[in-house]
Amino acid sequence: MTKLDTLGRHILVEYYNCDEDVLRDPAVIEQYMNEAAVRCGATIVQSVFHHFNPWGVSGAVIISESHLTIHTWPEYGYAAVDLFTCGDINPWVGFDYLEKMLGSQKTESTEIPRGVTSKIQRYSPHNLGVIVHKPAEV
Amino acid sequence: MTKLDTLGRHILVEYYNCDEDVLRDPAVIEQYMNEAAVRCGATIVQSVFHHFNPWGVSGAVIISESHLTIHTWPEYGYAAVDLFTCGDINPWVGFDYLEKMLGSQKTESTEIPRGVTSKIQRYSPHNLGVIVHKPAEV
Predict the structure, then answer these.
(1) A104 is known as an active-site residue
(2) Pairing, β A44-51 against β A57-63
(3) Residues A57, A58, A63, CA angle at the centre, nearest 5°?
(4) ipTM attached to this prediction
(5) pLDDT block averages, 10 residues each, chain B of length 138
């Protein structure tokens, strides 16, 4: 078991100058988001995607290691993607895959630690001991 | 129509020292997350929640204004919540509601702008003109 400094890592991605036709197709976006989850090494629990008329696509993939979400603005060639992962998987594989599949010519990202274990221990009324990674059973 | 500086606002919340019984109950968490969306003034499109054995709950509420997500670690009294909203709704109402309903004794939050319009314009090959708020039709 691995002692953890944070429970999760959360990457917020701005995909600029994407392929507008891809961004407006809910079936294609769902396929790419699910494939991104698989390529990260994640286990998909459930995904939900929705197409907003006349604009973009919103969706979430719940994975046993947290979630991936996307919101697209085809008219601006822009998509906001979140890759929130726990445990021993690599969200950057999903980042790279989506950059390619969305045809994004410019990306920006921010990584935010989620569930910093020293803070969880600090604010808990209990002695939590060592916080370790415990894979979930789906 | 309102000229926009950003397409969305994204609040990442750490809820520490929560009610552990609440955090492990998927039906209660789903109810609170949906109610949080409604109280923000959002329109719910679809929600998905999942209970991981023997641990916490993960879920997403897709709203026509983007999404709310949650991941709970009952054994640590900790929940990670995201409130990503577009348009003229107030995610902090949802923040306050969840703080109360999860029984969190300590919160921390980070607000990240998503889709900064000057950057979208900068990286677009097109002249996008003025970027304004356009409510989606669900």
Answers:
(1) no
(2) antiparallel
(3) 130
(4) 0.95
(5) 86 98 97 98 96 88 96 97 94 98 98 96 92 71
